[in-house]
């Protein structure tokens, strides 16, 4: 029977293949008292040894296929397995309470999971998952339960599962797996991350898909529409095949643009660069033809770590970004934490208005030592390429001077230690507070570049919290007030030879905004890697003179809606698809 | 048996990576090793015990060891803490 389900889009693309319903084997433990403790202890130790070998094999496979970070998960698993509290606990249940080895393992695993689950902290919830994963493995080994095997698949399949753990994905046969569909999960869950890294479509969060689909059903995963079609009819299958081909052609067409410049029909060049959060994202930017990094969000280095990342760790991350783009700029934004982003290891007081409070550069001025570690790491990395430093949350020239004074102290320290760095490193600021846009001409005296952060600029200018459903409709980057602020900033940089303006907010990657921003005089567009080819295609199909005229008209319209309607009409006239 | 007091200096405390380092170091010794925090005794070779122990920056703990290499064990663990786990 044919039916369609909707879920969360976690990875784009379209795949058609047979379903493989991957269910965790149900393990039933023996609840009866057992007298032969020696035998139960032997079963337990035998299973421990087996689990050890499995985890080590998976660890090596995970490192070679997905990298060290994925491997570290299994190092943690091994530590849980070796934990004397775990082994002693199980042995005590067997010896003192006469439990079967399987029941003892279950009880002790549940006990530890419970402790960690209770702590209201995502770090500990993740540890509870590790412990559960290890406990299940030991149990399966004791009971000789054979887990469905994803490593030996003899045909192409779509994996249908409740959720996929690192243990599941590490041993999977990647050539045969064409897509993921799960009951639970989100864009940031493990399944989503693995799907994107394998470039296969994934639609997650369908609640009960494992119950409604059977192994062997034909499944279409549409990671563009977020739909899963089960047992499509002949006509639907044909349509999906056409859609799939279209999508592949579209990707191919965009890939072919990779080595072309972002240049208008009348020869005006701009720079298209990528936003990254971690070094894993660098490849995507290169693949999509980005010529550098317009925003390295360094807070992810801090947020993905359980401890304050030291100078050496940061240096290594910045260095790999710089070495990946020998010519292109790599703009490293200093720590932007506070507001809605917190660190588990840095205590921050709750604030009534966190977005108007101690965040980003303001926090760095309070925690100067933390700030200096990062600045030294960036300076030391600067010898490996074309590094730019960018300060976030700047509201006036005073803060720029204060930040530069601290930077000078770091330079002096490096000079004294005879450590080399780029003495002419470019310094810039985020334009995300309206006062900085309005006073861009003053701030320009101290900086080499501006980068407009449209998300916050919009939020602060229009006084709207876009996470609040009741007022989110007011959030509109096409509002003429925002366009005028952008114009005010580009006016300053366009009239100076040694200053440029970029944009690293979501608007920079919006195909609707490309011509407008080009016409407003933006020099650099920084966006998620996958948006780069689309924007490049638009820029290559328009004349700069026309874009300028369009922008000029848009600046004088009355509402955001008028602006978007006008742009749509102009794009249609120019025969440019979005 | 020997025992020594020490105050945890690193920002994270005995959490996450420092916890792993601590447990791995303890595991290299034959002696029985315990961490005493506010009267509670935690097995120093248990990653789950140490992490659940909630030993934050500024906490003073006692490290106890008993066995053939007890002196070396306590010294190694104290040094790890005093070096702030290389943070």
Automatic annotation (TrEMBL), chain B:
Main localization (coarse): cytoplasm
Pfam family, one: PTS-HPr
Compartment(s) of residence: Cytoplasm
Keywords per UniProt: Cytoplasm, Phosphotransferase system
CDD domains the record matches: PTS-HPr_like
One GO-annotated biological process of the protein: phosphoenolpyruvate-dependent sugar phosphotransferase system
Top-level lineage group: Bacteria
Name of the protein described by the UniProt record: Phosphocarrier protein HPr
Organism classification: Bacteria, Bacillati, Bacillota, Clostridia, Eubacteriales
